[in-house]
Write a structure and sequence with these properties.
By secondary structure, the chain is mostly helical. The protein is built from three helices and no strands. It has one domain. The termini are far apart.
Length: 72
Amino acid sequence: MEIIFIVLILVGIALALGLLWCGFVGAVAQFTWASDVGFVGVIIFFAAWFFMFPIMAIWAVLWGFLILMDWI
């Protein structure tokens, strides 16, 4: 019983770290995309993260997952 609990905790930690890594890679891709427009793009990027955090976070995780899996 304790072994199953430990395994579930380790799997949960691994999934959480993977989610954070996908989010980081996606956020870097978003920033790179926004900086192609210039200073205005960077300002809009930070404003979007401030005002639309849940949407930007989901988009970052999905985009990061696609980048890490080489699907785009």
